[in-house]
Amino acid sequence: MTIALTHTFILTGRQLRAASRFPAFLVMNLVQPVIWLLLFGQLFKSVVEIPGFGAGQSYLEFLTPGIVMMMALFGSAWSGTVYIQDMQRGVMDRFLTSPTSRPAMIVSTLIYQSILAIVQSLIVVGIAFWAGARFPGGAVGILILLLAVVLLTAIFCSLSNAAALLAREQTVLIGISQLITLPLMFLSSAIMNTALSPEWVQTVAKYNPFEWAVIVGREALSAAPDWTSIWVHVGLLSALTVVMAALATSAFRVYQRSA
User: Fold this and answer.
1) Cα–Cα distance measured from residue 123 to residue 116, given in angstroms and rounded to the nearest whole number
2) Is the confidence at residue 3, as pLDDT, over 70?
3) Mapping DSSP to helix (H, G, I), strand (E, B) and coil, where does residue 3 land?
4) How confident is the model over 58-67, as pLDDT tens digits?
5) DSSP sequence for 53-118
6) pLDDT tens digits, residue range 87-129?
7) What share of the chain is helix, strand, coil (3-state, %, to 5)?
8) Of 2, 44, 161, 217, which cross-links 65 as Cys (Cβ 3.0–4.6 Å)?
9) For 116, how many CA atoms within 13 A lie in the half-sphere containing its CB?
């Protein structure tokens, strides 16, 4: 256990050092979410006046949790590129022939992506606050929002890593990422209240893990959080995290046997 924790710490540090050498990468990942936040927040600010949308908050306040989760979803869906780069450079094979802890190789990637997602989320929330959004949930609400960010990141980072280990091709990973991310985002309440959507969208949204994270974040930041809904959806996200982590572990074993 001690060796696995040490290796996890070292491997996470390796990825963080690589990221620190290219700080533009962090900025680039923020550009699109910030544009969506500020542009959509202004273009559609009147939608809160539509009957049935819901009252008591501005559209910017409604939109912010959705944009935060969108950023976590998109970032984690691309996380498998790290594995593919390691395969192409021969780094993965060197790891496999060394005493490096196998679980540490998986967990370190999840921790690294979670750290990036937390930093980016705090920046987006700060920009939203600067733009006029107010979050009555306060510090506790932000912490729960970040918990949902970490769980969502772990789910789709595990899926991306599994796809990378099984497919071993960047183009395949790109295709899978494009296939799942946009539909998941639009089949949710990230940018529009699903109460105004067709009934089939509302039904699909109930089973959408991205929607679960959006619900947690939005409820946590609200003035009167529905704690039952929050913890039910946190539980669903946690259960799916365990399932997807097991999938990534299985994919890693498949890769080891074929290497």
Assistant:
1) 11
2) yes
3) helix
4) 899 999 999 9
5) S--SS-HHHHHHHHHHHHHHHHHHHTTTHHHHHHHHHTHHHHHHTTT--HHHHHHHHHHHHHHHHH
6) 888 888 787 777 777 778 888 888 999 999 999 999 999 999 9
7) 80, 0, 20
8) 217
9) 34
